[in-house]
Design goal:
By secondary structure, the chain is an alpha/beta fold. The chain folds into two domains: 66 residues, Chemotaxis receptor methyltransferase CheR, N-terminal domain (Chemotaxis Receptor Methyltransferase Cher, domain 1, Orthogonal Bundle); 192 residues, 3-Layer(aba) Sandwich (Rossmann fold). It is built from eleven helices and ten strands. The strands form two sheets. It has a seven-stranded mixed beta sheet. The protein has a three-stranded antiparallel beta sheet with strand order 3-5-4. Helix 1 runs parallel beside helix 3. The longest helix is centred in the middle third of the chain and has 21 residues. It is globular and about 60 Å long. The structure holds S-adenosylmethionine. The site of S-adenosylmethionine has 25 residues, from loops.
Amino acid sequence: MNLSAREFHLIKNLIYDKFGINLGEHKKSLIVQRLHKELRNGGFSSFEDYYHYVTRDASGQALHVLGDLISTNHTYFFREEAHFDFLRKCALPQLDAALRGRGEKELRIWCAGCSSGEEPYSLSMMLSDYAADNSPGIEFYILGTDIASPALQKAAAGVYSSEQISQIPPLYRLHYLENLFDGRWRVKQSIRKRVLFRRLNLMRREYPFKKCFQVIFCRNVMIYFDAFTRERLAERFSRCLEPEGYLFIGHSETLDRSSGLYRFVQPAVYQKI
Ligand SMILES: C[S@@+](CC[C@H](N)C(=O)[O-])C[C@H]1O[C@@H](n2cnc3c(N)ncnc32)[C@H](O)[C@@H]1O
């Protein structure tokens, strides 16, 4: 089905308004590729027809499906290893000491844009290992959020192929995965129970959290946003972070350092001032 320049701009602007995803002029073929099945199955006669259907659907379900289709969910276990090293060696001992100093034991981490769960489970494995070695009393909770429901369903199941788990360190594989003997592996309940998955659009003006987080991971998500959206998001994140809390972004992403909200710690790691 042909996507005219006018239809491309209608859909591109809708995606930007609702999800913050900024599709460049060269992404016309991506829209066709991601949406053609939905158009065919729904019996739409044109992209404009589909656009009107989505914008007039009061239930929000059609928009929800558009978000599922348009998001890019590529991820893998222990992606950008330097972050896990930094967390383990520097941030965790410091956050742990601060918690103890206040007589508290709850460490809260938010994976914003968690896709199919590899990132929050990597954190859960690492934190379990850290707790066993250093701090048995620490209680950690990880919230994984995303707009893509199929990715979140995969995340909640916690089942991955042999190829997908190959990035997990051998000792963690031994301790934290169970073999399903059909070429797939399931993350053990002890690791899964620490992670809660929810659908949440980062473009919401306010986030529905009662307590602040000590750590936010929002990696390889902001690459899809423009500078304006990234800055608003960094502001909203700072409202959900405890003072001295850490924000991790992807190594190919940038944060405006002039905002005065964060101090630069090391590449792609910031600390709330
Ligand atoms: C490339 S994946 C990154 C996954 C993981 N953080 C990592 O670094 O491997 C980007 C994720 O951001 C999610 N995303 C994009 N826009 C979003 C939005 N407005 N609200 C919530 N999640 C969003 C996508 O659905 C996708 O799963």
